[in-house]
Amino acid sequence: MILNHYNQGNGSETILLLHSGGETALTENEFLSKQLQKNYKVIRMDLRGHGKSVSNDLDNYFFDCAHDVIETLDYLNESEVHIIGASLGALIALIINDIATRRVKSIVTTGIMTIKYEGFEESSKEEDARLMEIIKLDEVIKYMDKIHEGDWRKVITNEIGKDWYPFEYTSKLTRIDKPALLCIGENAHHELNGIEQLYKNDNVHIAIVPFAGHLANEMQPELFSKIVETFLNVIKE
């Protein structure tokens, strides 16, 4: 499917921003997008089931979502892009790099785990339980109804109770053959596991973002933006 998208800025190179689960193209990465638009063409997409990209077909979500992004890039005549993804968006970015690597010039991720840590299954059950409570809150319902046109409850609870996390793709960062930046919030302890393996790959750069957790891009937007801009400038040289 062609995803709802927004094109902003000008430049000879294009950056694709992919949001985290439960958010939309316009509710996340606002500061980053404004900064990047000064020197790049920036595309922001609502991922499948989010924002205005309404869909109830969620059975093969990660792959379908990745193909949605590629199809939308085809529609926009964008052959090669830099991808910056957060959490869900980062997972989709890594899958795109795996199935259509020629379309990806560089990749920036935040909010991902590269290895399965001990106790992952139990932690996942606890997070699922918290999520089910959060989506019952009136303020959450009001906000989500406002930013999503489709059935957001179905989307964000789609993977509950499943062995869903695509470690087979996140673990491939150790072997990636193009410029990559992994940003990790210092308080996202599970995401710090395994980063020592990434130092063996000269293509991978790692930034530990202070005073941030799972979504470093949202918790420290100015610092995150500066790190990303530095990365993009260096790989141009």
From TrEMBL:
Record's keyword terms, sorted: Hydrolase
Xref: Gene3D superfamilies: alpha/beta hydrolase
Pfam families: Abhydrolase_1
Keyword Nucleotide-binding: no
GO cellular component assignments: membrane
Molecular function GO terms recorded: hydrolase activity
UniProt domain AB hydrolase-1: residue ranges: 14-115
InterPro entries from the UniProt entry: AB_hydrolase_1, AB_hydrolase_fold, AB_hydrolase_sf
Family: Belongs to the AB hydrolase superfamily.
PANTHER family listed in its UniProt record: HYDROLASE, PUTATIVE (AFU_ORTHOLOGUE AFUA_2G14860)-RELATED, MONOACYLGLYCEROL LIPASE
Name of this protein: Alpha/beta hydrolase
Native organism: Macrococcus psychrotolerans
